[in-house]
Amino acid sequence: MNPAPSASPPPASTPYPLVLDALHSRAAPGRLVASPTGHVLASTVTLPDAPPGPLTRFGLAVAEATPESAFGEGPAADRFAAALLTAHRELLDATIAHALRHLEGRTSGDTTLLAKQLVAGQLADVALRLAEDAAVPEAHRHADRDARWRCHLRLVDIGRDLLRLLGASGFLADGPAGDLHLAEVLGNVYLHPDTEYADD
Amino acid sequence: MTELREAAPSAGTDLLDERTRELADYCAAMTGRLRVIGQRLDRDPDAITEFLHEPQVRFPVQGMLPPQYRSAGEFPAPLVAASSTVLGQVVATEQVAYGDPNVILASPGPSLSGGVVQALADEQQRQRYFGRLAAAPTHTFFALTEPAKGSAALELETTLTPAPGGGWLLNGAKCYIGNGARAQLGVVFCRRAPGPWGIEAVLLDTSAPGFSGELLPTVGLRGARISRLRFQDVAVAPEDLLGADRSPSRRGLYGATYILYRFRPGIAAMALGCAQAACDYLRTHRATLPRQDRHRLDGVLDRIAAVRHRTYAVAAAVDAGVVDVAGIGAVKARAARVAEDATRLVAELLGPASLIEHPWLEKTYRDVRAFELMEGTTNLHTMAAFQSLLRSRTALQPAAQRAVDGAARH
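Output (structure tokens, whole complex):
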């Protein structure tokens, strides 16, 4: 494992794996936070020795937790879970800005896609749902793991609707779709409320 | 490989005859091997070349070839013939995608461009195109979508202009083209003159000077090798213009729409195959579900069954000469959505870290998102469904009421 990066917030355009590294650093300085299932997800820069997998090309490494990891329940895990949701929300904010630019640059007939009522309404709906999610009181949002999972699912719904508005560019790994996929995977690993495993 | 499957492949389908059910079962037996190959393609999409000798890879493209270019004696002829109809393609494609959708998309073969050639080309052009495919593994592409205009065929900006010494020059760019950057041959839609009948389809050899292609990094369905293409003064000979002996209204744009309507149900079938596979994967790995979770899964399975039924119906209608444009778009859009919902639900119900501990699921979770954007987004098809709704409402109104409504609009 490489030394943890500085704990200062990364700039808005930072790739998600590096954002993730910063979240680890802020939640548990000098350590990486393990999921309840015993996985550690961080950038391939922070975990260069992790085995290659399908997420490697997105810049994300998956490793088993070690005795040095920050484990399970507790303040570090809580801080990390809360920060994951905040990062997901910031990613969606940035994607809305991206969608506005993208749809303004695409034309259909003699008008931009952004000027189409159907598209404008869908984009506004996405923005409203994101604002609504941000307005959920902290006590509700972080009441327990179920509450965080509900928040995660809301954010995934918003992200999927947003990416559909981007058409085929919403499927490119080097655009918002790649980072949003990682945010979904992170939620699946760190925020899922169950403790049960599948049969095998 | 029946161990992958919970339900018989043709379960819940009352629109298939005995031969088409046999085709479904034949393709269902391939799914285990296709799944292995598909996972390899997710790591290395060009690894398809290692599997070209395998029947599971070779069979699915057979029905897309004219009879004289099919592999003689390699596969049961009645099943190959059954897979050449739109309904047959849908049934076979669903089963193949149940194994893995990447394999058929990564395979050399005619793609949609072969359909355009069959629909528009003269005999010499057909011989040139299909003869080349028969002689050696050849990737092909169908280039309609453009960077600024999407798949709006009427608005395309790639131009075909007269060349000084005769023939034509092709200039422009295409985007999100499957297999574009690795193809040897393809069909490009371009504008020769203003208006809908000014659109042409040309056959292009990618070794032509001025052609370039680059791969685009996609979240999933990597076997499709989605690409961006550029054409800079690419020479197009008169014999490369498809359907030159036809009237302008029966070539170019006609060829594009003719093929899209026939292949679009196949995209729905791919999405349904993946959705069903995800649900069956859950039932294999989590045999007992709490009642509430079982109801959620059953809700998705109900939707899959419904969209499958409608997909078979629109495909059979095309075979019967009836093209229900809105219905075809609707099944594609609904199948894409149910595939996303199925993979999300399965990831949730398999428990924490399922997207790490089940690599096949993580791959499928990424792959199925491609179906939303392939052959028109949901918004596009939703608008077509709305227009259809308007037309049906008008048709149901008494004549006197239609006259009143019509007057009010003026």
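Residues 75-190 of chain A form a domain with the Butyryl-CoA Dehydrogenase, subunit A; domain 3 fold (CATH 1.20.140.10).
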